[in-house]
Amino acid sequence: MTAWYNEIDPYCAEWLRNLIRAELIAPGDVDERDIRDVVPTELSGYAQCHFFAGIGGWSAALRLAGWPDERPVWTGSCPCQPFSAAGARRGFHDERHLWPAWHWLIAQSRPRVVFGEQVESADGRRWLDLVSADLEEIGYACGAVVFPAAGIGAPHLRHRIWFVADIDSAGCPDIERWAGSAEPSWGAFPLAYPSTARFPQWLPEPEDGWMVDGVSANVGAVCAYGNAIVPQVAAEVIRAYMEAV
After folding, report:
1. Beta-carbon neighbour count of residue 26 at 10 Å?
2. Can you give the pLDDT at residue 202?
3. Of 41, 176, 214, 244, whose CB neighbour count within 10 A is largest?
4. Cα–Cα distance between 155 and 204 in angstroms, integer?
5. What residues form DSSP beta bridges with 49?
6. Closest CA to 7 of 38, 53, 39
7. What is the pLDDT of residue 196?
8. 1 close to 30: Cβ distance less than 8 angstroms
9. Sequence-separated (6 or more) residues with CB below 8 Å from residue 41
10. 213: pLDDT confidence band, cut at 50, 70 and 90?
11. How many CA atoms lie within 13 A of 2 on its CB side?
């Protein structure tokens, strides 16, 4: 097994197992424990570790970008509810603010490359400031970009902050130049970013036709894919990193 997937939601965990069986994401083990119960030594045998794995979007994105299953990497999309405008906005005081737990595992295990994502908002940028500062303190160079689903042709915006951290900053001059910034040089990070003014009719998030008043059978599926990343967007971020290094 090359990959380890950590996902606390049973519905998503079973979805991950189905995708692994179908060979649509990297082969691996699914761990349903709370991230705070994970011990660093348990991860040492895996090439890839996907935290807050959801339905495997990061693994799918890595494959789309041409990143081999056996090439080491860590990924994670920390819960967005503390920093989303749709939530209670308790931020760092929310019990779902799990970056400290992930940061501890990163500090102990020192993976070469870490990819991550968070909701794009003022609170999300404050979260990114903390993440960047924490990672830089333990020797990582960090870069970040705001890139929407519209950038790969989706009919909705879905703005997200994407970041990459590399512990070998000497080999990543572009990332080092971007450190601490959510506004990298577009010349160094060539992503297609459409102006929202060109798409005034587009929705912030995709519409969903699965839900009907009084019918709850599809709630698990809607929550699972509603919280998922768009793999095609993440793949562009991964490709840009691969080109930079």
Report:
1. 26
2. 45
3. 244
4. 9
5. 4, 74
6. 53
7. 38
8. no
9. none
10. low
11. 14
Q: Whole-angstrom Cα distance, residue 144 to residue 181?
A: 6
Among residues of the chain, what percentage have pLDDT more than 70?
67
**Is residue 8 within 8 Å of 34, Cβ to Cβ?**
yes
pTM score of the predicted model: 0.78
Burial of 209 (0-12, 13-18, 19+ CB in 10 A): exposed
With CA atoms as reference, report the closest residue to 140 among 179, 104, 173: 179
Token readout for 146 is 């705001």
Percentage of the chain lying above the pLDDT 90 cut: 53
Q: Encoding tokens for residue 147?
A: 């890139």
**234: confidence class by pLDDT, cuts 50, 70, 90:** very high
- What pLDDT was estimated at residue 90? 62
| Chain Cα centroid distance, residue 230 | 9
Instruction: Note whether 42 and 17 are within 8 A (CB).
Output: no
H/E stretch holding 116: strand 113-119
Q: Look at the alpha carbons of 129, 239, 48, 56 in this order and tell me if their dihedral is positive or negative.
A: positive
- Whether 168 shows a pLDDT value over 90: the answer reads no
Q: Which residues in 95-131 are b (16+ Cβ under 10 Å) and which e?
A: eebbbebbbebbeeeebebbbbbbbbbebbbebbeeb
Q: How far apart are CA 175 and CA 241, in angstroms?
A: 8
Instruction: Please name each of the domains of the chain with its CATH number.
Output: 3-244 (3.40.50.150)
Query: 212 is written with which tokens?
Result: 């009907």
